[in-house]
Design the sequence.
């Protein structure tokens, strides 16, 4: 018996040690997956419920999936939403006519599922949710009520629930006028709730000034609730992801964000780095440090710095806040599960029983461990800080994707004519959205080149990515590589440019004209094809890296299918070979560098972990290759 107990205890310790080796974003994601295995119930034993809390967790988990390429996180997201979203697009327990702004938060997750999978049920669901905004009650100025049962009221929370969903939907459907509405609502709530003295925003505003909690002159609630500020901050940085670059509302929101961050860092606790539940009353008896708000505020600051919306020196506040969150609120129990302490379950205004917005009211709400809002906020925060910790070797460098020689078009699921195959913004299987994110994660900017390359339009490019040039089967009028373009590219490489060439097998790609360029570097894409995978015979696509090479130092096994075998002469050198066939090659040309492979192998289908077995390390390979490419760019003098 003692032996059995010892073995079980040893297994528990091994599991705990293993879990703690993972990044904190993954540790907390695993906690959520353990607490809510099949569906989402706020309290154990209660029925599953369509709730915004779940959307907070799943958006955090989406960031973890994209940062680490582990498909189990995507699968959990999809399984969680499939519990509610039916094949006809109806959503269990979603009541549109309740006009509850909270109900829209999960729409962001459903939209991601549609973008990735293309399943029509998800599109039908988000289209139906979007109709809520067409009829949702508004203030006289045009802001959404928080809920139908809370007439004339706008809470900061509601901006998070609706605006990022609204903005992303508008981006996809090209509803440009919606951005006027979105920006206006951010502007209005700041105008009404911002305290001139502190710069902080009150939790809620009542246009009618009829609520007991509302100031009879301003209509504002009495206090600066930390999580309300957190919701508002996250809403801004997330909605900005979708704003057209030249829309005036973008600058308006960035202006609000700068005022917001200046205000919140002034009330950041000097000693611990976190924030109190009522922001400006840290010394008040009963006030306490709160984990969900602290996580949201750190996420807001860190993402705003990464996106360049606020000065870089605020990164120190994010780092201090994150370290404080880990120290104050993270604990690992005896089973190895990572838990989050110190989250207030809820704080609202009005309702039944009536919540008067007083300090005493806020202090009366329960503070618990592993509240879903707190867990979700922490996952988002941890993933953002883990991203911030990556080396920014691409800072100030521009990665340009050719959209001239690869120039295929289609009408997407949103009814918009867009480029297809190997593009930065395509989240479906054939897109490069994850590869683009990896470049961005290391600090590089990603852009398109939609015309023939010249010395002028390549100037300023650090890396030029060319993939799968069109043949007559791809488009009616393909833009074939010619000597003029090849010469311009070669001269750019000679001056220090880094060229990343990805072809395809001869039946799927123009090789004849593409070789006009690659031959200049001693690389020839041959008509010989290999790794012709049939169905799920994944081993046929295996490429092994058994010797240390300058590009792939950790990645040992990769998956590439239907490859054009390379032929190399000086200055090119084989990098990876299989059975005597050169799979990848590099060349130094003047001050520049060329990397070539006969397959566009880093598209989402073979990087995001959802299709190929986990033993194939394409996600790791993508990260190593991106870092190597960026390091080849000569330092500016």
Sequence:
């Amino acid at each position: 018996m003692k032996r059995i107990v010892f073995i079980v205890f040893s297994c528990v310790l091994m599991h705990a040690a293993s879990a703690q080796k993972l990044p904190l974003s993954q540790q907390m994601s695993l906690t959520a997956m353990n607490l809510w295995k099949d569906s989402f119930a706020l309290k154990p034993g209660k029925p599953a419920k369509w709730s915004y809390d779940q959307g907070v967790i799943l958006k955090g988990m989406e960031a973890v999936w994209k940062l680490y390429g582990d498909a189990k996180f995507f699968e959990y997201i999809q399984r969680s939403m499939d519990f509610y979203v039916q094949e006809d697009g109806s959503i269990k327990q979603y009541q549109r006519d309740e006009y509850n702004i909270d109900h829209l938060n999960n729409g962001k997750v459903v939209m991601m599922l549609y973008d990735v999978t293309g399943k029509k049920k998800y599109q039908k669901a988000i289209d139906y949710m979007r109709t809520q905004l067409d009829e949702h009650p508004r203030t006289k100025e045009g802001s959404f009520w928080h809920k139908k049962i809370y007439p004339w009221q706008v809470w900061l929370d509601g901006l998070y629930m609706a605006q990022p969903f609204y903005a992303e939907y508008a981006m996809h459907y090209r509803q440009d006028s919606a951005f006027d509405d979105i920006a206006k609502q951010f502007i209005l709530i700041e105008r009404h709730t911002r305290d001139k003295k502190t710069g902080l925003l009150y939790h809620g505003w009542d246009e009618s000034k009829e609520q007991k909690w509302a100031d009879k002159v301003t209509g504002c609630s009495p206090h600066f609730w930390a999580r309300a500020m957190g919701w508002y901050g996250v809403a801004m940085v997330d909605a900005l992801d979708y704003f057209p670059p030249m829309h005036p509302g973008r600058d308006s929101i960035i202006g609000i964000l700068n005022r917001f961050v200046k205000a919140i860092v002034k009330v950041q606790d000097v000693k611990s780095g976190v924030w109190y539940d009522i922001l400006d009353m840290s010394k008040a008896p009963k006030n306490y440090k709160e984990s969900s708000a602290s996580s949201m505020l750190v996420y807001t600051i860190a993402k705003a710095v990464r996106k360049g919306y606020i000065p870089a020196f605020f990164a120190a506040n994010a780092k201090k806040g994150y370290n404080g969150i880990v120290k104050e609120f993270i604990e690992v129990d005896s089973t190895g599960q990572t838990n989050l302490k110190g989250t207030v379950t809820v704080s609202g205004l009005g309702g039944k029983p009536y919540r008067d917005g007083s300090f005493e009211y806020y202090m009366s709400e329960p503070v618990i461990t592993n509240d879903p809002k707190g867990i979700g906020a922490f996952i988002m925060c941890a993933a953002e800080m883990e991203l911030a910790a990556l080396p920014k070797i691409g800072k100030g460098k521009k990665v340009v994707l050719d959209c001239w020689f690869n120039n295929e078009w289609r009408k997407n699921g949103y009814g918009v004519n867009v480029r297809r195959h190997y593009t930065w913004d395509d989240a479906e299987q054939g897109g490069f959205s994850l590869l683009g994110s990896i470049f961005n994660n290391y600090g590089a900017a990603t852009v398109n080149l939609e015309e023939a390359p010249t010395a002028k339009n390549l100037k300023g490019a650090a890396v030029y990515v060319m993939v799968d040039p069109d043949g007559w089967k791809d488009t009616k009028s393909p833009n074939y590589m010619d000597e003029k373009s090849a010469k311009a590219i070669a001269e750019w490489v000679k001056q220090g440019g880094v060229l990343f060439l990805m072809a395809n097998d001869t039946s799927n790609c123009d090789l004849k004209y593409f070789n006009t360029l690659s031959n200049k570097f001693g690389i020839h894409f041959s008509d010989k094809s290999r790794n012709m995978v049939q169905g799920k015979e994944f081993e046929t696509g295996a490429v092994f890296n058994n010797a240390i090479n300058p590009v792939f130092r950790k990645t040992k096994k990769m998956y590439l299918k239907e490859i054009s075998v390379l032929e190399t002469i000086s200055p090119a050198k084989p990098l990876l070979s299989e059975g005597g066939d050169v799979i990848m090659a590099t060349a130094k040309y003047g001050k520049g560098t060329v990397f070539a492979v006969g397959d566009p192998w880093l598209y989402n289908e073979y990087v995001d972990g959802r299709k190929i077995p986990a033993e194939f390390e394409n996600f790791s390979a993508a990260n190593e290759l991106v870092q190597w490419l960026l390091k080849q760019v000569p330092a500016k003098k």
Summary: The first helix runs from residue 2 to 20.
